[in-house]
Amino acid sequence: MDDIIILTPGQRLKAVRKKLGLRQRDLAGKNLSENYISMFENGKRRINIINATYLSHRINEAAEEKGLDFRVAANYFVKSEKDIVKDKCSEWLSQCRNPGNDGYYDIYSNIYKSIFLSNKYNLSDILADSYFLKGNYLYTNGLYRCAIIHFSQGLLYYIKNGEIEKEGNCYFNMAKVYYKMENYDLAIGYFNLAGSTKKVDEEKIKHYKALSFYKLKQYSLAKSNIDNILFKNGRVLELENNITKKLTRNEKNEM
């Protein structure tokens, strides 16, 4: 995977120059010596935006002269490795959120690359999003235990970073996984944690809690949750009807 190899600014210039078959002297000019270019490429000198703009202009001119469809922006030679990683990971995660015709191999490959680089460059926000996104795909594919592992990893970083809304979404998704695994007690616990963040739709939480209590045959608790849902769609009304049928006469009287 060549795209997880992150070049320094100088290495990027050298790679572009070699790609176009240019020598350092071909890029040198009145205010930019061949020695300066050599030192920059070897990491012995930094570059400012003025010189980077000059280099990008010269490179784009050379590409045009060679009839190549190739352009490079000045900031490509200014950005740090960490900035490049942010750009790459953001692009990969965006593709995974909107995969189009991409298959699961491409999706998981992009998430893996994002996890690898964000971990290497200490980008905890991107790392958390990568784990969360992979958890979603694992959940969709029915790999529930693996999904829990990845959601848990993402959750640790969301808590550390103080991202309460994403923390709540993580709790909620973990609860849904436990529900699918038929661990209804644990599911209810995580639905409660999701609700405690005040960042997750309360109606959805109540519905899932009602479902969980229904599966546990705790019909009174299921009913109390379903009764607190304000806007009841067809699924909620069907569950409410099933709960009502299951309630014993004594339980009905108590309510």
UniProtKB/TrEMBL annotation:
GO terms of molecular function: DNA binding
SUPFAM superfamilies, per the entry: lambda repressor-like DNA-binding domains, TPR-like
PROSITE patterns: HTH_CROC1
Domain HTH cro/C1-type residues, every copy: 13-49
Superkingdom of origin: Bacteria
Leader peptide range in chain numbering: none
Name of the protein: Helix-turn-helix domain-containing protein
Protein species of origin: Anaerosalibacter massiliensis
